[in-house]
Every structure is written in C-alpha cells, then in structure tokens.
Amino acid sequence: MKSQHVIAIVLLTSGGLVSCGPKAFTKGDYDDPTRVELLDDKFNEADMQQMADTTVRAIVSCPWVRNAKKPPVVVVEKVQNRTEEHVDMKSMTDKIRTALIKTGKVRFVNKKLRETLEEEYDYNASGAVSGVTQKKRGKQIGADYVLSGALATNIQQVGDDKLIYYKLTMNLTNLETSTIDCTEEKEIRKKYRRQSIGL
Known about the structure:
This protein is an alpha/beta fold.
C-alpha cells in the first residue's frame, strides 16, 4: 500500500514538472510585415525596411543614375556589420538590391555566380550543347558601379533609459574613376525604458 502511495506521488510530481516546462508556440496567425512591433531592443525588420527604402530612393534620384542614357550596371558588395549585434546583412543587401532592380533604373551583375558561370562556359564548349544555343565567354556586361555600405550603432544607457542609434551609410562608387558618385545615410534612433516586473 505504501509503495502505491509513493508511486502516485512520483507520477503527480513528474506531471507537474512537465507542465511547468517550456511551452511550444503551437498556434499562429499571419501578421502584417510592414507593421512596426518593438518587441525587444534589437535591430528588427522595420529598421531594415526603413533603411532599404531610403537607400533605394536616394540612388534612383542621384543625378548620375537618373540622367544616365541607359540603366547603370552595378555589382553589389554585402553591407558590412559594424555593430555588436548579430544582424542578417545578407538579407539587408538582398532587400536593397531587389528593390533597386524593381525600379528599372539600375541593373546588377551577379558576382556570386561568376564561378558557376565559368563552369557553364566550359560545359557549353565541351561539345555537349548544340551550336545554336551555346553560350560563350566574352559577352558579359562590365559593371559601371560598385554598391557598398556599412551599418553602425551607438548605444547609451542611463538609469532605466536606453537609447539605440543606428546609421546605415551606402555608397555607389564609379568603377572607372573610383569616385563616389552617390551616397546616402539613414539614421534610426529608438528609446526604451526598463519596466519593473511585478509578482
């Protein structure tokens, strides 16, 4: 009888421990990705969107781009992360490049696929591809500009107040002359106040 009582207590205790463990997110719903939600004090998608929008507007309105007879060809470098946070800079770079392509004012060469393209040229020259559809070296378009940039931050904390400042600087450098023909900065500052947690 005693052993059955002990087993019952153990089962109840272990069940209580399981129910108090971490809970999984099991129910979800779609949300508006353009709505600003400051859930924590980290760099978020709203910050990225604001910075990308500002960069795109600045580049397409830059005289060297706006007055070009045909859309300049650009090679993009991944935006540098000079903050202490883990920020997905590839997503930031991709967002800016995608938005610029959609304007029709700029064209991009795919630097990342250069090695793959070389393999394809070799395959095309191997005799396995029909002459009519063969793609040969020597017809790629050279870039006119290099798009590069960096994200920096400054954090100040006094008492219960925390101020976070982000600055994205983007440059469009002329490949032939090495001059920076277009540049833009986007600044974001956010203020947080420490909340006391009640029991």
